[in-house]
Structures are given as structure tokens and as C-alpha cells.
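Propose amino acids for all 94 sites.
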């Protein structure tokens, strides 16, 4: 059975991602209806929170090491060394 990285799991389970016009808040939705809410408005205000803990969103949130959110892309870095990149397109902005 092939090993799936955290990044592969996140990409497979993601159904929608939205970012605000300032590129400092984002929401990543998953197949089970859960989501992760991200915010990065300053050096002291950077966080990711799952909608609920016992969901895909909770599992992915617990495996996050860091994230990058800007006008070019949204990148999630995981504890297993993998990373998932979501390109920000006009249709994904809130």
C-alpha cells in the first residue's frame, strides 16, 4: 500500500479554497464538510484553526508545521516534510 503524505491527503480531500482580497485570511474546505480557517495579518498574528477537531480539517491542522499565504499562492508545510500549494486564482477570492 503506498504511503500518502500529509500534503497529498490535503490536496485529495480539499474541495474549495477561498482567500480574501487582502490575501491575509483564507478558508480551505474538505470533502467531509470540515474546513481550516487561516489568518496572517501580522508577524504576531498567524494561525490556522479547524472547524472541529475530529474531522479531516482537524487531522490536517494537527499535522501543519507552517503556512504561507500571499497574492501568488497559498502553501501549507507539514510535519512530515511535505507541502501542498494552492494557486490563488481570481475565482477563489472572496
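Proposal:
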Amino acid at each position: 500500500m503506498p504511503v500518502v503524505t500529509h500534503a497529498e491527503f490535503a490536496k485529495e480531500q480539499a474541495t474549495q479554497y477561498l482567500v480574501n482580497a487582502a490575501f491575509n485570511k483564507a478558508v480551505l474546505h474538505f470533502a467531509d464538510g470540515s474546513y481550516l480557517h487561516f489568518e496572517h495579518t501580522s508577524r504576531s498574528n498567524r494561525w490556522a484553526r479547524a472547524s472541529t477537531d475530529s474531522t479531516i480539517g482537524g487531522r490536517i491542522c494537527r499535522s501543519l508545521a507552517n503556512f504561507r499565504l500571499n497574492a501568488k499562492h497559498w502553501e501549507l508545510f507539514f510535519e512530515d516534510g511535505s507541502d501542498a500549494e494552492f494557486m490563488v486564482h481570481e475565482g477563489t477570492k472572496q
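The beta strands are 14-19, 25-30, 35-42, 45-50, 64-69, 73-78, 83-87. DSSP finds two helices and seven strands in the chain.
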